[in-house]
Amino acid sequence: MSQANCPDCQKLFEELDEYIDSVKGNTGVLINVLHKAQEIFGYLSEELQQHVSEKLDIPLSQVYGVVTFYNFFSMKPKGKNQIKVCLGTACYVKGADKILERLRDELGVEMNEPTSDGLFSIHAVRCLGACSMAPVVLVGEDDYFGRVTPDEVSKILGKYRRAE
Prior knowledge:
Blueprint: H1 9-23, H2 30-41, H3 46-56, H4 60-69, E1 81-86, H5 89-93, H6 96-107, E2 120-125, E3 137-139, E4 143-145, H7 153-162
Parallel strand pairs: 1-2
Antiparallel strand pairs: 1-3, 3-4
Helix pairs in contact: 1-2, 2-3, 3-4
């Protein structure tokens, strides 16, 4: 996410700086600033972590420690449509591994990597809390698909491709 590779980055950094300035001086703002930074940029690159460290006048090691401790922060870009495949026991025994394999084949990416167009990324999760619908796939934050078979993967992906 080097600024040289991102024509809009200057504007994005200004937006982040404006937010930081509005909360600076309050106690415990690091997590909120990191959430805002990830919301703006999509992920927390090393450059972005360094920027937050300097703006908040805290050690980079503290920023990095928080980013790596909490699983809701990401240091890698994710696809616009994050596909979460449940690999909990109920889903796994009903074929979630085959769904995951089909997704990787159809999208041509490995786990946690965005597709070249930035539209999708695949993520394995331990439980989505919908065991009665196993195997379960979640796209985004609230689009659940239950009792998914590998043959339905293309249809699910098509729904999001058409929305673009």
